[in-house]
Each structure stands twice: as C-alpha cells, then as structure tokens.
Write the structure tokens for this entry.
Amino acid sequence: MRPTAPLILITAVTALAAGTLTACGGGSGGDRDTVKVVYNRSTDNKIRFKDAHLEAAKKQFEKDHPGKKIKLIPVQAPDNDYATKAQQMMRSPKTAPDLVYEDTFRINSDIKAGYLKSLDGYLPEWDQWSQFVDTAKAAAKAEDGKTYGIPDGTDTRGLWFNKAIFAEAGLPADWQPRNWAEILQAARTVKRKVPGAIPLNVYTGKGPGEAAVMQGFEMLLYGTGADPLYDPSAKKWVSAGKGFQDSLDFVRTVYAEKLGPDVTDALDPNVGTRVATEWFPEGKLAISLDGSWMGQNWINKGPKEWPEWSKELAQTPMPTQNGQAPGKVSMSGGWAWSVPQKAKNPDLAFDFVKTLQTKENATRWCVVAAQIAVRKDVAADPGYLKSMPGIDFFTGLVQYTHYRPALPVYPQVSTAIGEAMEKVTTGDASAADAAKAYNDQLRTIADGAVVSK
Amino acid sequence: MSAKRTGLWRWAPIAPATALLLLFLAGPIGYCVWIAFTNTQLTGASGSDFVGLDNFRRAFADDNFRNAVRLTLVFTFISAVIGQNTLGLALAGLMRAASRPVRTVTGTLVITAWVLPEIVAAFLLYTFFRREGTLNALLDWLHLPGQNWLFTLPILAVSFANVWRGTAFSMLIYSAALAEIPRDITEAAEVDGASGPRRVWHITLPMIRRSIGTNLMLNTLSTLSVFGLIWAMTRGGPGNRSQTLPVFMYDQAFLKSLIGYGTAVALLLLLVGSLFSIVYLRLMKVEV
C-alpha cells in the first residue's frame, strides 16, 4: 500500500458519506421558509412576461411575509419535456417543489398518479374562490370530486388571417368561412395569386405536441359531430370513425397540396414561435388556425414588437365541417397552480397562490399573458376588456367552446393523435391507415374500453 | 498466517470499491430489470404491478419497435461497422505514410470532432444538413440541386454524423496496432514481390486481427446507445424514420410515460448489444 492510499480512501469515504447523508444536490432538504415554484419558461428567449409577472408576485409575497422566501425554478423546455421534468421532480420528496404550474389537460393524469395534493382544505377559507366561474373550477377537479389546482386563465381558438395578403388574393376583408371546404378554397386562392406566401398554417405532428393536437386536430374533429373523442355517457373512448378520418384528411390535404408551411418547419417543435415572431409579422403567412393569446407576442415587451398587428390581422371563427349547427367551433384549455403531494411547505405554497390571485394580480396576468379570464371580477374589469384588440371576439367564442376529455389517459391519447397527424403530414400514411394505427394504440391505452360511433 | 486468511486479506483493498459498485451499479441495474416486468407509469394510473412478460410480448407485436430495431441495425452497420471502422483504418494507414505536418493536421482535425461534446457535434451537424444549411449552400455553389437531408434521408444523415464524430477512436486504435507490426515482416513480403493490396490482405489485416475485433466491439456498443446526437438532429423524425432503439425507448418511457415498457425495450437493447459482442468474440477470437 502506498502511504497516500489510506488517505485517499478516507477522503473518498468521507466525501461519499457527506454526499449521501446531506442529500447533496437533492433540492431543498426541508427548508421551512422557502417555497419552491416550478413553472415552464418559454423556449423563446424574448418571451419573459411570465417570469416578470412571477418575479413581481415574489417581491410582493416576500414583503408581506417577512422571513419567507419564494424560489422560482424555471424549466425552459417545450411543453412535453416540461411535463416530464415536473413529473420526475414530484416523484421524490427530495426534489418535489411546493408549487407547480400544470397544464389542465395533464392534471388528471398527475392526480391519478398521486403527485398532487387536494386543495379542498384551503378553499372554504379563501374568499376569492367564489369569483371563479364553474367551468374553471371543473378544470382541475378530479374524478374523486376534489379540487387539485387553481386555474389562472383560459383560452379559445379561431382563425387569424392577414388582411393585406387577402386583399392581394382578392379575398374579402370580413372573411367568414362557413365550412372546411371554404377554408381550403381560400388557401388555394392565396397559393395561386400570392406566390411566396404560406397560405394556411395548421399545427401538426409530434414536435409541437399538444399544440398540434388541440389547435390543429381537435379544432377540426370537434366540428364533425358531438363527443367525437370520448363518450361521457358510455364512459368509453371513441374509436376513429369518419369524422376522425376526415380531420386527418384535411391535415393531409393542407400539406400534400403544399398549402401549409414547409413540412420540416411544420414538424419542428418551435413552429409556434416562428408563426408569432416571423411569419405573421413579416407578412409571410395568410391564415393560421391559432389561439387567443397570439396578441401577447406583439404588445408591450413581447418577443416581437409589432404595433400594427391589430390593423394588419383579423380573426374569424373556425367553422364546423359542413356548417352544421352550431356552425362554429373552439377548443379551450388553460393552466393551473397545484401543490405536489410531496411538497414540504404546502400551506405557504397556497399563500403564494393567494398572492398570485389577488384581483389586481389576476387581472394583470390575464392582460400580460393574453388569457381569457376565468374570474367574474376580472372578466368585468374595464382594464382587461380594453387590454387587447380582439379579446372581445375570443371571449365571444366561449359559448362554442369544447374542453378536452379530462381523463388520466388523455395525454397518451394526445400523443397517439400527434403520431397519426405526423404520418399523414409526411405522406407516410393515408388518413385511413393512420386512423387504423390510432385505433390499435387507443385500445391499448384505454384497456379495451372503446366504443365505435 | 493461513492461506485462507491471506485470501480474505487480499480482498480488503478492493472491498470499498466493490461495495460502491454493488450499491450504485448493481442496485439500479437490478431495479431496472424488475421495472421491466411491471406496468409502472410516470403519470396516470400509478402502481407497479408485476405483469410478467407482457411488456416483451407487446414489444414484439409493436410495429414501431420492429421499425426501431431495423433502424438501429442500419444505423449501427452503416456508421460503426462500415463507416468508423473502415475510415479509421484507412486514415491510420494513410497517416503512417504521410509526412509529419500532414499527420499532425489530420490527426488534430479528426480528434477535434471526437472530443466535442455530443450535443455540440449534434448541433453542428444539424446546421450542416438542415434546409438552409452548409451542405445545401455548398451544393448550390456547385450548381447541384440541394434537398432537405434531415427530412428525406434522416437515418443516413445521422449515420454520417456518427461517422464524423466517432472515427477518431478507430483511427487511434489502428494507428497503435499498425505501429506494432514489425518492419521486417512487411519488408520480407515486399522482397517476395507481394503487391500493396496483397500485403494488406495477407499480412497487415491478420496481424491486427485482435485490434479489429476489439475496435468493432467498442464501436458497435457505443453506437447502439447513441441518443443525444439523433435526438438533437431529428428527434427520431420525421414520423419514425430515424427512431432507433434508444430514441424509441425515451419516447415510450418519458413521452408516453410507459416506464415499464421503456425499460423492457432497454433490456432488449442490451440483448442486441450482447449478441453483437458474442459474434465478434467468436469471429475474431478476441481476448477480452
């Protein structure tokens, strides 16, 4: 043995013990005065309104609660990766945050997994809860009837179009398509008369993830008939029928006829950022099937200052497939603040939710994030109503809107839909083949509890 | 001191290392094997019920899994067995004949590609292959038609990337092996009138047989597990046209939350690796 060997050995063992016994790098290790808040930071480095809003709330909270600290933990990643990261953090008490920002479409899945804590103990004493509209309260309610998240806004979806390109193509400035065929017709007209412009953007594929499934596919699917995805009366998922195939075929047509963006761009996870910061502001895109929040990209301190946007762009509702009643369709989602089951400081975490949900803060959030309000007092606030051109249009779509089936396996169903979309977009499969593959996956996901329509 | 006691004492120095290995290596591996036989999920219905061979049955019935196996074999064969291996040998051979400055420059360039972190190399190659990338700019300059490589030939693009990145390792192994060949044998063959190719075939290759075997094995095993490169360049897309087993595994385990199934696929990947290794051991009679 070299004389130094015992020394090395002792050092190594000591370092190891120190690491394991103090949970080195394992997170808070039970700091009673710090609330760890995990949220998703935009992958666009110029979009920081959420960070700024949370920083402001943090300052306010730390002033009102002397000695207490908020530790903001941003995760900069596409939504799918953010969810995976958050789920992994919540698995262990060492890494579990005290508060986590959850997309309401995943929340039921995470509740079922036992990651989240019921908030029912806090709600009766919280005077602001009565301000939330019922649909919003239902968004984070589980099958067990308990509430697991406090939503902070919702959204609706419709068609955005560029008036200058429309004028050049000889299309009306008050465009109101009555069915899918008229949308495709307008796109073909743009392709013919305005070379160089992208006629129609429909989000698609695995890269954009839920954005493609909800903004692209479900905006089509929910215009084909009632309950096309899940049958609440039978409590079963609906296998891909005619409406499903027609929706896939619409997507296929857009990309096969080169009416959409270049396929590689369309399948890129960051296509949403490009629509908002490049294609629309640079006047390269005629129509996009998109969300109510688009405006926040172009207003105060957004990633792309574009003061003329409200004059250059217009919105119109998404029609149903053949114009059948009610004639219009929209999808709604939203995000909520939840407390993980393994949080060290759940009470303090809920106190931070209260700070985030004072009327002033809730209103300011809806304004900076271009959210559709989920609170009655915010919805009536003149500052909110005047905050953004088009907000009244998108608020008006709430009556036509649909919510995704709030079930634990929905995220897996969504992934399967994303794959089906990608197959028809690349031309690797026909709509019928992609629908068949989806049905095979759906049977596995739903354990055979599937019904045909 | 009895022989038995000496035996025990001889274990003493490596006891801490063994304990650490058991704790941090064997433990997780055992846990992984267990998970592969359960229906553990990252989210949704939690619970880790033992489901026997269900995950493996499911894999063999899964078109996407079969596609991943096929692509993994293509990727490994093109980039490791053919690309890195042959190119490495060729570079090593040529560098022996080259002058010192040429050797230095070539060696530096090749090794630079190798020491770059995987993710940096991946982004470099992404910018090389993408539609507005360097390759298309070059082709355009030569008045040749460019195309969207990552979309039309994704598996070839990532294979090329892996060759670019991993050749240095083979080159180093072969340089060392060629330096070991005694000069007088080659000279004797030359005097007997053996031509260049014949010398390579009958003398050089048999003499470095063991290095070839070792190199093939190491290359294959490291290529089988390439994930970051493919993920950053194509994410396994478009569709699943570059979804090799590691990418498929990640997709199932973390994007579809099926940890149990993903782990089962990982075990199958391990099996593929072992099969390759056994074949090399048999063919090359490598001494490990």
Remarks:
- The two ends of chain B are 34 Å apart (CA to CA).
- The mean pLDDT of chain B is 88.
